[in-house]
Every structure is written in structure tokens, then in C-alpha cells.
Structure prediction request, 459 residues.
Amino acid sequence: MIKRTLKQVSEMVSAKNEISSFAETMITGVSIDSRDIAQGNLFIPFKGEQSDGHKYVEDSIRKGAAAALWQSDVPNPPSHLPILIVDDCLEALQELARKYRNELAVKVVGITGSNGKTTTKDMTAGLLATKYKVKKTAGNFNNQIGLPLTVLDMDEDTEIAVLEMGMSGRGEIEFLTKLARPDAVVITNIGESHLLDLGSREGIAEAKLEILQGLDDGGLAVLNGDEPLLMERIHQHKGNVKVQTFGRNNTNDLYPTDIIQLDQGNRFKINSTAESFELPVLGTHNIMNALAAMLIARYFSVPFEKMNEGLANLKLTNMRMELVEGQNGEKIINDAYNASPTSMMAAIELVSNLKVYERRILVLGDMLELGPQEEQYHLQIGEGLHEDKVDLLFTYGPLGLHIAKGARKTLGEQRVFAYTDKSELITQLKQHVNDKTLVLVKASRGMRLEEIVQSLQKK
Prediction:
């Protein structure tokens, strides 16, 4: 993590006040949460509508923070403490990260996409870690606060940083990529997330392609070659860029030639080597994420022969195709972190192929941020269900009612249960599970369906 004197930090953030008496104070790392201060941290307070972090500056320094920022429009800065006065604390955090990144010799991989970017980030970091010292985005710290915090948490001898870049609207990925200055980037796919803000899949593609704006000339762009919206636009955005593609079709640079679905993952082969790979992650769609990670790893000279080692030690962020067990022995696929029509259909396809279970139950909740056609998207998910894919369907939320409506056309009334009360859903669901049951739980993050998983696990 960043280690600099307060004088150096003052210059990096263009502080307004005189700090000569504290100039040699050493800061080690940064924190934006006064409850989570480590010794030597630089505390960065944010001024929000509901609360003001400046109230906790003195308490943070008592807890061990070496210094703190202070926004110039907040009155009464404590002059007896090591304080750096700046125009805006968020902008100062971002500028500190920008300057720190520019001082390091680290290589950077930037990853974005509508679905799968966190899993691809985890896979990419795992493969690269077989050869390099790697830092990756923690959890989903992928926004204008999270990415700078990840950069500032890098040790100076980090060799490669794998940074996830998320967005809710235009311009956000451009900002992040220009701060991170990646040597290689990945766009996993173009889905339906953020249709509410961007209006169309074409608009989403344009927003994701902003990641090229920070890529150095001659850098590598790894794209989903099965997505025409990307392939049509790539060279309009960046002329001097190396492009490599992955996907299901044999027109791509990397594609699978043989896939065997296992109880807890997949075995697959690719066109570029005779090597067979074992991916300990459920869902054949995750092979696409693995292919993107493999192209990045090859770019950084990791041989195919070492990639199984990286895949075997894979550590995924929680609630992404996470297989857990309930109190009655039922197997639960916890995929409650996020959802879109594309990822929802992929998860359902996974369940339909796991025929070793006597009963397969779907618990599906609202998919958010889909714009004016949100009801139609949910209805189509339900209409796509058939007897050979699922035994029972439970839905949660007002949009989930439309999934249920569509599913009743194919599954019938007796196999579809719709709820807007989560506790009622849990009570009824528990009556249908045993040690021969597989339950898929999936919805957008705002629906908090991990609470259903936790209830099934409680004894």
C-alpha cells in the first residue's frame, strides 16, 4: 500500500495549507471508514447528504490514523492535528491514486462488461498469480471510489494489477481507465444491465468501449468475438490496438473444442493446445470468462501448462455461482449478487443440465435497471422455462410476478409460486427441499436473496 510522507502526499493532492510541523509524518495506506482505521492510515472524510465524515477526523487520529484530509468548504479544521486541506476530498483521493499509479512500474489489466466482469477479474488474477505478484480489485470496488482505493492498496513491488471497472452511465469507465492506464483490457460481453440509463444495447456497447480510452497505443484489447456490437465498433474507438477475441464460435482466436460439465465445474479443451483444463466453477458460460482470462495470461507470458494450477487455486468473489449446502442436505447455487436476462438464462441452463438431482428448484427475483421493457424481459424468462429444465419455480418481488406469469403457461399453476414477502417464500420453500434437491437462487443485488440462502443453511 502507499507509503509516503505527509509532505509528499500534500504535493500529490495539492493541499492548500502549510504543514511544515507534520511534514515528515509517514502515512501508510488510506481509509474512508473511521470504524476501520489501521495504524498510520490517511483518513479521507466524505461529505454526504446524510452524514459528514469530517465529524470523525479527530476520532480517527486518536485510533491511529497518521493524518486526514479536510475539505475546504467545511468550517473549523483542527489546526493542532496533521490535516491536509483540499478543494474536494473525493477528487483528492482520485488524484492521489492517479499520481501513485504513475509512480509505479506495475502493469495493469482493466476489465469491464455487462456480465461476468468480477468472475473474469478473479480468474485473470488467479492465472497471472502463477508467475507474478498480483493485486486485484477486492469485492466489487469497481467505481470512482473503489478503484482509487484498490490502486492505493497496491504494494510498490506489485507486478500486475487486475482492476474491475463498473459503471452506471456514460463517462464513468472513461474516467476509471484514464486513471488506471491499463496495458491490456477485457470486455466480457454486452448485456441488458443499465438499459434504464443508456437506453439500448448499442448505448451499453459504447459505454463499455470507453475502456479503450486509457489503453496505451499498441496495448491489447480482449473482446467477446461473438458480440457484433463490439466487433463493429472496436476500431472506431482506438486504431492502434491489438485485438484478440474469445467466444463459442471457431472464428475467434480462442474457443472451446470440447466441454464436459461436472458436478462442481467444467472440463474443457481449447483450439490452441492439446491441454485439458478443469474449471472449478459451475456454468458453461463461465468457460467464456476463463477464455478471456487465458488470453490475458498468455499476453503476459503465462504458458498454458501452468494455467490449470491457477484455475485449481481460484478464489471467486462471494455469491457468484457459489455452491453451498442447506440444513436438509439440499445443494444451493448462490448466484444472488446480480442478474440480467442474459445471466439469468445462463444460470437456468446450468440447472437444466444437472440432471443428477431428483428435484430442481429455481428461486428468481427481480432484475433491476432494465428500463421500459423490464416487465417483458421478466415475462420472457418465465416463458422460457419447461418441464425438463425445472421442477418448481419460486419468484420474489413485483417484477418476479411477471416471471411467474410467463412460467404458468409452460409449467402450470401447481408448480409456480410467486411472493412479494420474503419470509413467506422461505417458509414454503423449506417444505420442498431435501438431500436430493438443487436450488438456484438468483436476482439483482438489491433484492438481497442471499437472505434466502442463509435461511436454508440455518439449523
In short: The chain has three domains: 3-92, 104-312, 322-457.
